Amino acid sequence: xxxxxxxxxxxxxxxxxxxxxxxxxxxxxxxxxxxxxxxxxxxxxxxxxxxxxxxxxxxxxxxxxxxxxxxxxxxxxxxxxxxxxxxxxxxxxxxxxxxxxxxxxxxxxxxxxxxxxxxxxxxxxxxxxxxx
Length: 132
Hints:
The protein contains 1 helix and 12 strands. The protein is mainly beta. The protein has 2 domains: about 1-35, no CATH class; about 45-130, Sandwich (Jelly Rolls).
């Protein structure tokens, strides 16, 4: 359902999230109105190690505490003590490098069904993942 409001468009998605598209200085942008997001009442969390040299560690397959009560997550919080790369939903997607200074790395813009972690830091990475 969409409605016009003074040149702005407000759209309500199937997940009960509200977005606002706007034009400013000739450029389009989209803002998620966070206060209107309906999140679940439960979360899942796990702490685990990813050995150096590991490529595309499948978090769903390897961590029984994650993706149990849900088929996807709307909010992901990743903490790490080593530089790692992460792919979301498919190993074919582009890698995102997470430095220790980026920790926690938060994803709240993507419906995520799978997480793949690679570690070439030279050290075992301690990783914490929180899903909502």
